[in-house]
Amino acid sequence: MGNLTGKVAIVAGGTRGAGRGIAIQLGEAGATVYVTGRTTNNHTSPMQRSETIEQTAALVSQAGGCGIAVKTDHTKEKQVKSLFQRIEHEQGQLDILVNDIWGGDPLTEWGKTIGDHDLSDGLQLLQQAVQSHIITSHYAIPLLKKAPQGIMIEITDGTDYSYRGNFYYSLAKISNIHMAQAMATDLKEDSIIALAVTPGFLRSEAMLDLFQVTEDNWQDGVKSDKHFIASETPFYIGKAIRHLATDPDVGRFSGKTLSTWQLSDIYNFTDRDGSKPHWGNYYHKHIK
Description:
Number of domains: 1
CATH superfamily: NAD(P)-binding Rossmann-like Domain
Distance between the termini: 35 Å
CATH topology: Rossmann fold
Structural class: alpha/beta
Shape: globular
CATH architecture: 3-Layer(aba) Sandwich
Largest sheet: 7 strands, parallel
InterPro entries: NAD(P)-bd_dom_sf (IPR036291), SDR_fam (IPR002347)
Helix content: 40-55%
Strand content: 5-15%
Protein name: SDR family NAD(P)-dependent oxidoreductase
Pfam families: adh_short
């Protein structure tokens, strides 16, 4: 892998899960990483999780980069505008934007149709997972245009446009995919690359808690869901994004939607335990 020393990245929604894994890996490559989110050492978001942006920023610095935590609600335009003004003032540049803003788990009512789903929760989910990405991209673009090659990465779920089991969840994740496609076309003349990346069955902190396991005994989670055996850690998608960010030929992926398992085949990297989870193969063999 290449080196990101001297590069500036923002991981929007880097408090935990995939965002944290990505931020750490960019830091390990030497980048300065702005970590944003709503949960800080002094404030807990509606997600009611203990992980904080300060913790993630510290892990970035421990990995070899420079982690900077900035409390930001990306649905609030003034906060997002202020964030990028700060980055411009402190760094004068931005090379990588990772849009991983989510917070939709408590707002998704699985098993309910659009007519039965709580409307306010559904609309809030779209505000957090789609509108926030638009606002963030809008204010990031002027800085990304100054980079020799700006990279925008949308974190999504799935690689196609098939229904994902819930109207609002599906609409949000498919919107992220199309945003990457649209921005790749819109910004081609500005030398900005845009793409989307999906993890497989992500073994996040929240998922470990849900199945009442830790990373040390995570395989016991199959008692709750047999498909958990094919899960992957946030480290895996972190590696995927790090490889993309340091690939001098990353432009060949602009407009595309890629997966961790595809990228592990392309770049030949493994998860933290040395395995190469391939959710695509597992899904087609055991679920579809």
